[in-house]
Amino acid sequence: MSMSKKAIFAGSFDPFTIGHKNIVDRALQSVADEVVIAIGINNEKKCMFSLKERQQAIRQVYLDEPRVSVEAYEGLTTDFAQRIGADYLLRGVRSVKDFEYERDMAEVNHRLTGIETVLLFTAPELACISSSTVRELISYHQNVKNYLP
Q1: Residues catalogued as catalytic
Q2: Going from the N-terminus, what domains does the chain have, and what CATH number goes with each?
Q3: Which label site among 42, 91, 110, 148 has the fewest CB atoms less than 10 Å from its CB?
Q4: Banded pLDDT at 46 (limits 50, 70, 90)
């Protein structure tokens, strides 16, 4: 009997974007049997949406997908990943520069925790869409529906 593989995707403090969904979906197709979308809680950082709003939005996207769950956590992502028994950390990469940074962080995390990091490039058409871009669009009262799943 094969063991189930669990991955954790540390979602941002901001809206769950199409690029984020792309990463979770691809992980379910290739490396993980289950993905926990982990939403970090940071009382010092101002978020556009409350924790409850972010959780509800993600649950709505994955309403019929029992292999995806949403959990909030405080502290380090690697500590949370160890606590829930994750096999992989999922990290989204939008550019070569991101890749180099994430690769270095993956090596450090693996040495510290033993958890593998899976780096997934977002689709080229989604590469420019980040939570900071969404934040900027909202600040200018622009419609962000096209960027959200």
Answers
A1: 20, 45, 94, 131
A2: 6-147 (3.40.50.620)
A3: 42
A4: low
Sign of CA dihedral 44, 56, 53, 106: positive
Q: What residues contact 142, with CB distance under 8 A and at least 6 apart? A: none
Whether pLDDT at 12 is above 90: no
> In angstroms, what CA-CA distances link 89 with 31, 44, 63, 72, 82?
11, 24, 22, 15, 10
